[in-house]
Design goal:
The chain is of the alpha/beta class and 430 residues long. The protein folds into three domains: 205 residues, FAD/NAD(P)-binding domain (3-Layer(bba) Sandwich), CATH 3.50.50; 56 residues, Alpha-Beta Plaits, CATH 3.30.70; 155 residues, FAD/NAD(P)-binding domain (3-Layer(bba) Sandwich). It is built from nine helices and 20 strands.
Amino acid sequence: MRSCDPGPPIVGDRAEYILRDDMQTHVLIVGGGVAGLCAATELAGLGLESVIVEKAPFLGGHVARFCCKATDRCNRCAACHLEDLLQDVRSSDRITTLERAEVVAADSSEGRCRLSIAQRPHRIVPGLCDGCRECVRVCPEPGAIVDSPVAGRLELNQSVCRFFTDGSCRACEEVCPQKAVALGEPDRTFVLDASAIVLATGFKPFDASEKPRFGHGLVPGVVTALELEGLLRDENWTPPPTNGGTEPSVAFIQCVGSRDVKAGRNYCSRVCCGYALRLARLLKHRFPGLRPTMFYMDIQTFDRDFQRRLSLAEKEVALVRSIPAEIRKGVDGRPEAIYHGPQETRVVESFDLVVLSIGISPVMPDLPLPALAANEDGFVGTNGEAVVTNLPGVFVAGTLQAPRSIAETISHSIRAAGEAASYIRNISKG
């Protein structure tokens, strides 16, 4: 992997990072999540070079925060594929990665696109930081230095750091024994010529606060499934002690921000039923005394193995075909679900944890290009499995085009890379 991250100024025996003022590549890939990484590795296998531009300070997208959902056997969540993709990218000399970067200008002519890319430097340089955490120890502002989803890496939160808010503190830079903290480095801009573009900007999770009746941010013990993923990945959640012999309980509420006309999301996000059942079974496996319940409208099946997994889940998870009207704080402080039971009876039930299965929507690329056509649900391109867009030489991969699982995203990204390669071959002949 060739990294264009210039890092801080070169001092003494510190490793040198080289950044050219202009570069050329076959394909620019916008987005460094599963879709972008997969497209890059597929293009490399076809003999083509690519540059991945990622806004975040790390690669992997949302999947970098996902936990493995294996119980006594693999549950095919596909989260582990990310590590394989990252290894493939790191080992390829045809893939260049640009983290903390974005396209700020573009000009297309004669089958090529000239792009200006701005890149913010890593404030804590990954290749120099050894994880001693001296910077965390001396930092006076909680939340200014945080752990990255990438194991062993620290990131600086500029919106909280006092150096960037009022210029009053450089404690982390002064204490770092490896000189890995570089607060004053300016942004850098350079030019890249590409023959094709693959858009792989991924998805954004539904903001659960838009549905206040479910209590997210209002009722203690209500989290989103994405938040639970992070807690389980970090092994940072355990059920509360049993109270009077009562088993601890967790409720999953489906279709929060999906199949909802009022929320402007009248489509199924496809992945929620699968990840909720996997998470419920994982909790049951880790904590056998736990009692999981799933509230749903319909159970959606989108892969060939789903029916078997659903049959197994039914033995461990109570399935209730009803969506609670409200989640409120009960008299004992726990979340309390109010829903319609059998024969339209009103049921009030308390849980130790309520997990909202939030839907997904596309992250529209902020690019200086002509407008991208979207379908009726706001996803780029057309319905179905198409990878082409209304712009010649611009292709789309993964959940920017439609809701899909990790495995489906990988398959779609391979198609996008293939179409981009065919396009490049055709224009080179012309």
